[in-house]
Design goal:
Blueprint lengths: L1 E8 L3 H27 L5 H15 L5 H23 L15 E2 L4 E4 L4 E6 L2 E9 L10 E10 L2 E9 L11 E6 L5 E3 L3 E3 L3 H19 L2 H10 L2 H19 L6 E5 L4 H4 L6 H7 L3 H13 L4 E5 L24 E3 L5 E4 H17 L24 E2 L3
Parallel strand pairs: 8-11, 11-12, 14-15
Antiparallel strand pairs: 1-5, 1-7, 2-6, 3-4, 4-5, 6-7, 8-9, 9-10, 13-14
Helix pairs in contact: 1-3, 2-3, 4-5, 4-6, 6-9
Length: 389
């Protein structure tokens, strides 16, 4: 079970200069390998190594050999990603980074947990640097170290250390929790839990309006205020995603299964292109939230599975009737066929869980099986059935 520990390096001006030079040369090698791979349509790591290692080693001799190799590995990963996007018809260009974080492995760095020091290979040779371990990461101290990335932010140097922790011993069970993710209501689970805070959206709107007003103002004080607000939105959303992912994982018992919607490419599929709703959708960090849920669930022995989100908001969780106008409003779902009434997001969460049950063939799992016949518009409507939350 891999985890990333962020440690703050305590550097002298000379050490900071050496780290900056190492990062600069690493980025230069990364960019040149990417440029070669893009020009020659090459993504194979071995062929890229044979074509670029010796010329780049001669051009940048101060960078140790293993960092040359790690820069080539990162470039290979970037090239493979853009080539996949290009095959999908997406508009792409050659990968390039102004500050690619150097990656260290067992050959180029060593961590001394008891003394809180790390030894790194730099352009000025090996350096021992003391570091500060944040309180939340104390439980990872002493774990097996795999790799690390060196990053600079706001004048400080951070080392992101990947450690290997033992996986918990948990007995799997048949408990399944479907989760409907949204913007207005952050998350709703199939076991009737409404998670997150609706006030989060108001905070983001307020920050956005303030930033737009300061940009329009354009004065020195406004620009100074904008610098203070830099990355505020990112930090706030990251904190919200941490809180929400923890709540989602705690809503499922140890050894259970969490079912999420596969929302990949949702921004391309949506028809909303302008206005407030489009801005909220395009700023929705659903991929980050999903990654947080996955790694938090791993620590509790919970499996995370994705399902196709199609029709989960249109299908009745009672009779299986699918219709666009089943959802009377953003908040409420009322089936046109049987009259079943339920909160729309809760209905979607139950349908998500039912899709998983049907896919793996679990009988009696609740919800409707797949490939139900669609009830025609001429079907008689049953009496109104309501469900108390």
């Amino acid at each position: 079970m891999n985890r990333t520990v962020r440690v703050l390096l305590q550097t002298t001006p000379e050490q900071a200069a050496a780290l900056a030079e190492t990062a600069r040369l690493f980025s230069a090698v990364f960019n040149e390998v990417c440029a070669y791979g893009w020009a020659h349509n090459e993504k194979n790591g071995v062929r890229l190594h044979h074509a670029t290692y010796y010329p780049l080693k001669e051009r940048y001799p101060a960078l140790v050999s293993d960092l040359h190799c790690q820069a080539r590995v990162k470039a290979t990963e970037a090239l493979r990603s853009v080539f996949v996007l290009r095959r999908q018809g997406r508009k792409v260009s050659a990968p390039r980074s102004s500050q690619c974080p150097p990656r260290f492995n067992k050959h180029t760095f060593k961590v001394d947990w008891p003394n809180r020091t790390v030894r790194l290979s730099t352009t000025q040779g090996r350096m021992s640097l003391p570091f500060q371990l944040l309180a939340y990461a104390e439980k990872c101290a002493g774990a097996t170290v795999l790799t690390s990335d060196l990053l600079q932010r706001d004048g400080n140097w951070w080392l992101h250390i990947v450690v290997d922790l033992p996986a918990p011993e948990v007995t799997p069970n048949a408990e399944v929790v479907g989760v409907d993710l949204g913007i207005a209501q952050p998350a709703v689970t199939s076991n009737n839990r409404f998670l997150g805070k609706k006030g989060w959206r108001a905070v983001e709107t307020r920050n956005f309006n303030l930033r737009r007003a300061l940009q329009a103002k354009g004065t020195k004080s406004a620009k100074r205020h904008l610098r203070k607000m830099r990355r505020r939105q990112e930090r706030f959303r990251r904190d919200c995603d941490h809180v929400l992912s923890k709540q989602i994982v705690e809503a499922c018992p140890h050894g259970g299964t969490i079912i999420l919607e596969n929302l990949k490419d949702i921004r391309r599929r949506t028809k909303v292109r302008h206005g407030k709703q489009a801005r909220r959708l395009h700023s929705w960090s659903f991929a980050q939230l999903k990654s947080f849920v996955r790694y938090k669930a791993e620590g509790r022995g919970i499996t995370v599975v994705g399902v196709d989100p199609r029709h989960t908001s249109q299908m009745c969780s009672s009779c299986g009737h699918i219709a666009r106008d089943n959802r009377r409003s953003r908040a409420w779902f009322q089936c046109r066929a049987c009259g079943f009434l339920l909160h729309a997001d809760l209905s979607g969460a139950r349908n998500i869980a039912a899709k998983y049950h049907a896919a793996v063939g679990i009988p009696g799992g609740g919800g409707q099986p797949v490939n139900l016949p669609i009830v025609g518009s001429s079907a008689s409507h049953g009496s109104l059935t309501s469900c108390r939350l």
